[in-house]
């Protein structure tokens, strides 16, 4: 096991590559939400950002050498906590529901205004 204080940033990144993946997903998702004027692309960016959060929680819950928390007569710790996995499973369900509602609203906005561009919608709303 690598000592975290003695390891340099390159060694730490090599051993904890899921953190790099997490921040890459968070960055891409935030960029798409902020930079794209299209509402559908904003929803996709939100889903990418959400996936980065899921990866962070699951990866940070990893315990090397741990076993499942089914305690028996010969069970010796350390054990893996099932709580992060349960929370992420719930968050996935909420995320799918949020995406469905957002896409439903986007369909209604398109039917009403004929566009999905946020800046055009802003102009149309100020004209009304």
Observed structural traits:
transmembrane, mainly alpha, 5 helices, Helix Hairpins, transmembrane helix
Short structural description:
This protein has 128 residues and is mostly helical. Helices cover 70% and strands 0% of the residues.
Please render the helix and strand layout as text.
Elements: H1 9-15, H2 17-35, H3 39-60, H4 83-113, H5 118-127
Task: Tell me what you see in this structure.
70% of the residues lie in helices and 0% in strands. It is mainly alpha-helical and 128 residues long. Helix 2 packs antiparallel against helix 3. The longest helix has 31 residues. The radius of gyration is 21 Å and the shape is elongated. The protein starts with 8 loop residues before the first helix and ends with a helix. The mean pLDDT is 86.
E-strand count: 0
Low-confidence stretches: none
Mean pLDDT: 86
CATH class: Mainly Alpha
Q: Please summarize the sheet with the most strands.
A: none
Going by CATH, the architecture would be Orthogonal Bundle
Order of SSEs, N→C?
HHHHH
Structural class: mainly alpha
Task: Please give the domain count.
Answer: 1
Radius of gyration: 21 Å
- What would the CATH topology be? Helix Hairpins
